[in-house]
């Protein structure tokens, strides 16, 4: 049986325990949200992430907070930003995969009845 298309928009929200500018933390939160909505046997077309509730760089941490920021996080993210200023995608995270360039999705392409004789439906008696 062919996989079914997920017809409805599915969304989940997640919360970061502490303010972060580390892409790795945002990617991890997105992966946790995806794991909660994923269903085998469905074909998904696209996904997106929205961020909200921004705070300044000097956000106050909770006194009893056990989720301290990663060591050297700011230095790493600054290095990634500097490298990517030379051109988008110069350095990426492994989960982003390899960019194979743009490719048109053709699995839902409409027939070209008006421009291609071979696309015309045939009737047999």
Automatic annotation (TrEMBL):
Domain DUF4113: 74-123
GO biological process: DNA repair
Pfam families: DUF4113, IMS_C
Residues covered by the DNA polymerase Y-family little finger domain: 10-63
MF terms (GO), sorted A to Z: damaged DNA binding
Name under which the protein is recorded: DUF4113 domain-containing protein
